[in-house]
Structure formats: structure tokens, C-alpha cells
Amino acid sequence: MICKNYVVTGEDVDDVMVMESNAYISYTLRLLYHFLFNNGFSKEKLNASHLGLQEGNHVLVCYKNLMFTEPFFVKMENCYMDDKIKIKSCFFNSKNECCAEVTKEVEWFDSIRREVIVAPKQILQHFNQNTRV
Prior knowledge:
Elements: E1 2-7, H1 21-38, H2 43-48, E2 51-62, E3 71-81, E4 84-93, E5 98-110, E6 115-117, H3 121-124
Antiparallel strand pairs: 1-3, 2-5, 3-4, 4-5, 5-6
């Protein structure tokens, strides 16, 4: 669906230089924003429409540690948009080994009404709703 290359930074790791679980979630959300941007919905456009994303549940399955300064890439395998956005991202090291998988739920948030809302039609029409996570 979409891939992006990164390098594990000092902010991503614990005291023994292993990437922390919150970093996996952060990279998953970054890739979602990148995906939205590529489809014409920048953060500025979302803010102007008073739309945001509210994080929900997530599941992280770690197969192999990513270490400090190690290059890796994240691939968004699935993105299902309905009332909630359900995404699955896989993290691969430079040897193309799957090191971790994140399944994440996020919801649309209306910053004026201060409540979770259904996916806006102008955004939903750009995404394949037949893909399930």
C-alpha cells in the first residue's frame, strides 16, 4: 500500500539501544499521516477542516529487535476506513526480515464539537473500504 524508510534514532530506543514499543506506534501514525498527505489531506487541510485523529487500541507483535542506528522500513499492509481507521503496519530490517507488526485503531475527531465522528465523506471516498485488517 505504502512504504517509507527510516533509521532508528536515539529517541526511539531504551537504555540497551532497542527500539521501544511506543516508537513502533509513532512510526505507524507517521505513515498514516504520510498516506493521507499523498491522497490530498495534509495536516494543515485536516486542521482547517477541524479534523483530527484520536488514537484507539493497538496490538504490537515483535519478532526481532530493531537497534539504534539500524535502517528499517515500514509498510502499511492494510488500511480500512469506516467509523474507525484500522491499519496494519509491518516493520522490516535491512535484510527484509519482518521485525514487528502493529495493528492500530484511530478515530476521526471533530475539534469544534470535541467528539469522535464518523469518517468524513470527502475523505472516505478516496479509500478502499473492501480491505479489512
